[in-house]
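DM from R.C. (forwarded with permission)

"hey, sorry to bug you on a friday — could you get me a structure for this? deadline for the figure draft is monday and I only need the backbone to look sensible"
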Amino acid sequence: MTRKLIYLFFILISINLFSQSPLRKSEMRGVWVASLGIDWPKTQGTSSSAIQAQKNELVALFNSHKSYGMNAIFFHVRPMCDAVYNSKIEPWSAYLTGDQGVAPSDPNYDPLKLAIEEAHKRGMELHAWLNPYRAESSGGSAVSANHVINKHPEWIIKCNGSEYRFLNPGLPEVRNYVVNVIMDIVRRYDVDGIHFDDYFYPYTDYGSFNDNATFQLYPNGFTDKANWRENNVNLLLTMINDSIKAVKPWIKFGISPSGNPGVNSSIFCDPVVWLKGDYVDENGVQQTGPPYIDYILPQLYWVKYNGNLSYWSGTSFLNGRHLYIGEPAYRYTTTDFSVNELGWEITTNRNTPTVNGCVYFSSKSVTSNLAGCNDSLKYNYYIHPSSIPKMDWLPGGNTKPNAPSNLRFEKNASSNKYELHWDKSLPASDGDTAFAYLIYRFNITPVAVDDAANIFGYTGTGENYLPSAEAKYSVTKGNYYVVTAIDRYGNESDASAYVLFYSADLIPGKPELISPANGDASQPATANLKWGGVTNAERYQIQVSKDPSFNTINYNLFEYKSLSILFNQVRPGNKYYWRVKAFGVVGESEFSDVFNFSSGIPLPPTLIEPEHANTQVVVTPTFKWHKSSNTTSYHLKLSTSVQFSNGTFIIDKVVNDTFYTITTQLATLKNYYWRVSSKNSVGEGDWSAQFGFRTRSTVDVRDENGIPITTKLNQNYPNPFNPSTVISYQLSGKSNVSLKIFDVLGNEVITLIEQEQSGGFYNYPLSISNYQLPSGIYFYRLQTDNYIETRKLIILK
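My reply, with the result:
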């Protein structure tokens, strides 16, 4: 819980650039729930206690996904020709029971049935996720006797160099088998979709395989094996789509290939063809028809999509079908992904007209709040509920369901809270009933349901009310409510008659702030903001600003249930003002009184020496800095890396004084970087400015008077630079000195020095802000009475 709260304000900082992404009334917001020991179940076994644990885990999982706006679950039901459901064809999965082929002790327990019921209660779709050909990844005795590997070994191909086994896609009997497995699910379960991911023909790193005999037996008019293999996949997909639509036309069929087109060609998948509807039938006859998938879901698992979005988002490419984007939630904490990535992804998707939403891999990454991802969804991007996008091409895809009726508020006797109730929609002319309901809230009449910002809630058919505890009070304001029905095709009904709900005695009172006390100046980097609960309050809004008038609000958190939050952005030198507002089922309070607090952590010190860009530092330097008030000690770091990366530290030490002399000699003619932070009992502050220097040679280059025995021009530091650098040189005696800069054509552009100078060491600070020099390569030349030398410098802007 603490980790979650710490993330919240970090999230709010990072998403400011993206929070204005356009709202959509309908948008795919899905999540993959993988078996294979990844997401669910955490508990394996057949006992009653194991079954109950699995049920509890699944309900908690779905509650979590619902809480931050998900509207679809992609539930892994067939990992390796086994079943996470009560299959009539394939054995129970070992990922569920612990042993493949062993059934749960309760014959009525069916995880897929339970998952569908729990998803539909919450208004979420349930897509059954299957792997069509993968039969075994490791090999061995764990495969049960009734597994297809043992029942039909003639259908199996093994990869050389691994234990990977898969069904042979070139065999007609294999295609029939896979279709039968899928249609068994379609006929017996109320699924909303059938979903494949990227496991078709095996990836090349699994090893080579031999299907020559199948190619010779069933060539289907092909002479090229690669084209034949690709068409084998297409044949299966056309059979599946035709079979599904003949039985339950509202069920969607979609595929999630790799986001890299080159990878798909290596496993003989061609999404272009799927979306065109082309294939060659088993008689070798070219067929062209409508697309045989309803959506394409590429796994764009790279930072900023690696520029691949345009490949998938073309209107002609999609041929009228939906495009969803597979998002890599599992990578939100790696070095190349950051908390900013999620905001960029959602905003980019919403600003791309052909993108209809996204699906996250995988469930545990989102429920674990990696990089604060579910906080970002819950408190910003998915704060308004959304229904599944409508698919106009499906049969019955343009018939509205009937509107709900008898909208009313009733008081729940158990909770003593008001709930919104209505009567279910009557069946429409096509016989379809409502699948889910959208609830809208307005502050004026007549009400309009064309604005996604007015969506107040979204719920399934399992309940005829929306508990007030699920309301988005602080976003959708007002006391007028209407409800619309959503059917299995995504059609929305007309709005119900509106109902007005208002009672002055239900408006929540004004919150009172508790801590930090007003004016507190001793806060650590993470301040625990606390306030008192008030009657009728169900949600709170917390605002933090550096402006006492709140003209500029730095942090603005809606929809918060608790009475405290960890604010982890307290910086030394800043004063913070904060206030809280309460929201109830009716109305909102005024803001609390404003409190302020500031940090007790000391400000960073100012560095003195070695000076920045000094190229003549001795190998045993003394580091000095100015004292910082309220400081008891200092943290000194010296590194060979400008990034101060791990493994590059020469010094990483806490000292009590404002200086430190190194005891071990540094390397000669080498660049070093140093910085210092201040510490006290409250905590450690920010790092100081970062200084860089270069050590000089240990060879004695001076005479007895300290004058250099040679004249020399050194390389400027830093180089390349912007906006400033230092040119250093030494003179062996008095001389006329000329220091000039030339462009690459040899034209003089700046005269820096033109005067007589005595022998000694010189540093000339050069700032390009004083000159109109564009980026590029230049040369600087030192000329004395008996010496001339030229070096290169580079300006980067």
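R.C.: lifesaver. Confidence is low (pLDDT under 50) at residues 1-19.
me: no worries. The chain is about 20% helix and 30% strand.
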